[in-house]
Design a protein that fits this description.
291 residues; alpha/beta; seven-stranded mixed sheet; 9 helices; 14 strands; globular
């Protein structure tokens, strides 16, 4: 088994009757993910695909369906409340896919979840979710590009995550668990949080980390790696050509006040012993060469 999601995951899909929620819920069901409930206020009593009960609240999904993990597809203005509702209902792992959540709403949700003292972990928002191949898909990552293996992947970018996983598979390797932490300025789970889990995961023998410009999460991760992380780790920083002050893609990918530059992140990784590559293909080749 991998980290975060697996055969013990009992998933509730918040927003299961919406366009995105229903589409990805159907794909997760096809993959074999154990979806025990859906939630859409006002739709309680219905069934999704004639099998998954829909409730009005997450609390009902926990009480009647035994849900322990939530994935959120609700529109941005309601996503902050959805995160809080899931945590308040006792959900252990909340994964928010929604893009464009107001930062102040995320701040309030993170503050609320942190105050619970570790009872709930938040991943995202604005993330592709978590995938443990062969066990559970909780997110929007394309299942067809994954195969089981010993490479842990953690990334701020959804698109680059898909690209590197595809390269890993084509190189004859496989993934233990792939985690997209999200590209917003404020997120729940950080690089360090995921690395701590991968460090203890016996299935993970090497790690690929995809960072990007903006913020200081990569520098913080580098300090942790240098001090405590013992497994081989390969890094890549995207957005190297972005000019200061211009946001590239993600809301959190912006160099401002001289902080968040690719040069600083690459230097921090190299000082920590991370093998940094110029391209994703090069990163995968180096990981494969390790054996």
């Amino acid at each position: 088994m991998g980290i975060l999601v697996g055969k013990n995951t009992r998933l509730v899909v918040q927003g299961i009757t919406g366009r995105e929620g229903s589409s990805h819920a159907e794909q997760m069901l096809e993959y074999g993910t154990n979806i025990v409930a859906g939630v859409t206020p006002g739709r309680g009593g219905q069934k999704f695909k004639d099998t998954v009960p829909v409730y009005d609240t997450v609390a009902e999904a926990v009480e009647k369906g035994g849900a322990n993990t939530s994935i959120i597809f609700v529109p941005p203005p309601f996503a902050g409340d959805a995160m809080v509702e899931a945590a308040a209902a006792g959900i252990e792992l909340v994964i928010c896919i929604t893009e464009g959540v107001p930062v102040i709403d995320t701040v309030r949700a993170v503050r609320y979840i942190n105050a619970l003292g570790g009872k709930t972990r938040l991943i995202g928002p604005n993330c592709p979710g978590v995938m443990t191949p062969g066990e559970s898909r909780v997110g929007i990552m394309p299942s067809s590009i994954f195969r089981e293996g010993n490479v842990g992947v953690v990334s701020r970018s959804g698109t680059l995550t898909y690209e590197v996983v595809d390269l890993i598979t084509k190189a004859g390797m496989g993934v233990s668990t792939c985690t997209g932490v999200g590209g917003d300025p404020v997120i729940g789970t950080t690089f360090v949080d995921v690395l701590e889990l991968l460090a203890e995961d016996p299935k993970t023998e090497k790690v690929l980390l995809i960072g990007e410009i903006g913020g200081t999460d990569e520098e913080t991760a580098a300090a942790y790696i240098q001090a405590k992380f013992k497994k081989p780790i390969f890094g890549f920083i995207s957005g190297r050509s972005a000019p200061p002050g211009k946001r590239m893609g993600h809301a959190g990918a912006i160099i401002s006040g001289g902080k968040g530059t690719p040069e600083a992140k690459i230097a921090a990784f190299q000082a920590a012993g991370v093998t940094v590559s110029d391209t994703l293909a090069e990163m995968v080749e180096r990981a494969k060469a390790l054996g």
